[in-house]
Design a protein that fits this description.
Beta-clip-like, alpha+beta, Jelly Rolls, 22 strands, 2 domains, six-stranded antiparallel sheet, single chain
Length: 332
């Protein structure tokens, strides 16, 4: 027996026999089968323990993140409980409903995006980084921020639904879209998302199109190679946009990364450095009109070189529509 809902919101208990056809259901009842939860079984148990053992020690000592991973590892020592799941798809939307038996505990995965949560029924305690320990009782609708990993203890039988915007119907592909395997992966994803969103703001502020930016940066008559000594700066695919520039050696804050313009032409630093509001470089305008790129923070091996395109726009004489923004210009 499981719990499902009519369109009027009344709770009913029905039996989902294998031979039950949708046409057998009452007109106003919409059935979606429940399946065994993906938190049970030895394979899932092993993955959860390995994940906790690998990621837990990487978190700050005593932090909520570390405690969540410690709890995740300890749950593997307890007997399995079946958590029935329901997967429902509509155009552009995926809803995942889980039934939590009273007394059960689950530790969730790291969500990449803000998403809607619906606690249809029941009372639970929820532990997250942002909210600490909260007691929630359904019916309740709320939004979880991106980067959320939570533990849930069900005081009563509870029904929890998460809703995600997606056009996918393949569950493995959906998990790749909405779940980060580690906090490091989430932080990389978040940085890419922030950079892309802010790039659109830069286009709006400068009044330029993406096509125009590409045509300027790709102009072969405005490009030149690095001089010797910069083999550690390599061009590779970037999660932000196309190809990016990455460093194969550590760079200290304040260090000259390299020339961005030589004799008025773009080097790979001026051509391939992608935009981010969380830049790790800025341009230094030299007296001869060339540009150097300076590290604004320590840049580790393997990191992408990023600058704020607003500074490049202003150095090129492009006026920003948002006059509240100020970009530092260095002249030596």
């Amino acid at each position: 027996m499981i719990v499902i809902y009519t369109q009027r919101g009344k709770r009913q208990k029905v039996s989902l026999a294998p031979n039950l056809a949708l046409s057998d259901a009452p007109t106003r009842l919409r059935l979606a089968g429940f399946v065994a939860g993906d938190t049970v079984g030895e394979a899932r148990r092993a993955v959860a323990v390995q994940d906790a053992n690998e990621q837990g020690p990487l978190q700050p000592a005593g932090s909520t993140r570390q405690k969540l991973y410690d709890l995740q590892a300890s749950l593997a020592q307890l007997p399995d409980i079946e958590f029935p799941l329901q997967h429902v798809f509509a155009p552009g939307v995926y809803a995942r409903t889980i039934i939590l038996p009273a007394g059960s505990v689950i530790v969730g995965k790291i969500h990449k995006h803000a998403h809607v949560n619906i606690l249809s029924m029941g009372t639970v305690d929820v532990i997250t980084e942002s909210g600490g320990v909260e007691r929630l009782s359904g019916p309740l609708t709320m939004v979880s921020p991106p980067g959320t990993k939570r533990a849930v203890y069900a005081h009563t039988d509870s029904v929890w639904t998460t809703i995600h915007p997606t056009n996918e119907t393949d569950l493995d592909k959906i998990e790749d879209e909405v779940i980060a395997k580690t906090y490091s992966e989430y932080e990389r994803f978040h940085d890419v998302h922030v950079a892309r969103s802010d790039y659109l703001k830069v286009l709006e502020e400068t009044g330029k199109s993406h096509k125009w930016v590409r045509s300027v940066s790709e102009n072969p008559e405005d490009q030149t190679d690095f001089p010797e000594g910069y083999a550690h700066l390599v061009i590779k695919p970037s999660g932000i946009e196309g190809m990016g520039l990455f460093t194969e050696k550590a760079i200290k804050s304040g260090e000259v990364i390299g020339p961005a313009r030589i004799a008025g032409k773009r080097t790979p630093l001026g051509r391939y450095a992608n935009h981010s509001p969380r830049k790790n470089t800025e341009f230094l305008l030299l007296t001869n009109g060339d540009l150097d790129s300076i590290a604004t923070e320590d840049i580790p091996v393997g990191a992408e070189i990023l600058n704020d395109y607003r500074q490049g726009a202003q150095l090129s004489g492009i006026t920003l529509n948002d006059s509240s923004r100020t970009i530092k210009k260095g002249i030596v």
